[in-house]
Every structure is written in C-alpha cells, then in structure tokens.
Amino acid sequence: MDALKVVVFGALNAGKTTFVERLSGNELFLKGEYEDITTSFDFVQIQQGGFLIHLFASPGHRRFSFMWETLATGMDGAILLIDSTVGITPVDFELIKFIEGYDVPYVIVANKEDISRLDPEAIRAELNLSGDVPIFNTSALNNDDLASFMDNLINDITGKNK
Fold it and tell me: Any idea what the CATH number is for the domain that residue 62 is in?
C-alpha cells in the first residue's frame, strides 16, 4: 500500500486535534497540550482510497510556527482548517502563503459548521484563492463528511481530479 503524508494546518483552536481524531476514529493516546493548547504535533494513520495516510496536525499557536517547516517537509498535500466561529485570521493568511510555497495540492476546510457557517465563496475571495482550490464546510466534532474531502485531496494528490 502506498503512503501519503498530509498535514493539517490551522490557527489556534480551529479544531485540528478533534479533526484528526474523528477522521481516524480514535482518540489520540498521547496529546501534547497545556491548558487546552496543543504544544506539539498530532499524528494518526488512516487507510483511505487505497493509501496509508500519515496525517499530521500542526500546533495552531503562533509561537509554535517553527514546527511548520519540519511538518511540511515531504508532505504530499495539506489541509487548512479555519475556525468558522472566528473567521479568517492573520495566521490563516500566513498559512496559505506557507502551504502554497510547497506547491502541493491542498483543501480549505471551514470547521465548526455546527455553530457557525462561513460561505465558501467569501472564504475564496478573502484569501484570494483560485477557483480550483476546493473549500468545504464541516463539523469535525460531529464527523460531518470528513472522508469525502479527504478523498478529494487524495484524488488531487494522485492526479485523478485532473
């Protein structure tokens, strides 16, 4: 089985840990956190679309941004998780530029749709994204269709959407 590395980036409290836990179907055994702030990266492995996905989630607090480059090294694709209750943050703008610098397929996921919903086209306009960047709304807490946009990202990585 071929392996793919996917990294979930997002600002503080966007829901990255919950996202990887729900996608894997398992609660993380060990969480590097202090006062509900992730202070290390999360890691799970899932099988999807015929691939073994090594799924990493970066810490969202800006002071841990030094980890971004290490996590991004060798990544095949990325997910930018946006907190719908907060909207697009300065860190989200920074992360888009960072991800685009790696020239890998990525998707935007507006999380916490169970509380608040961001319009995908408003996200596209605010982040100045091209029309070919997929944008999804979800609730990781409720496990709303998480597998479908992972399938979309896997297809982009492997060239099946081209």
Answer: 3.40.50.300
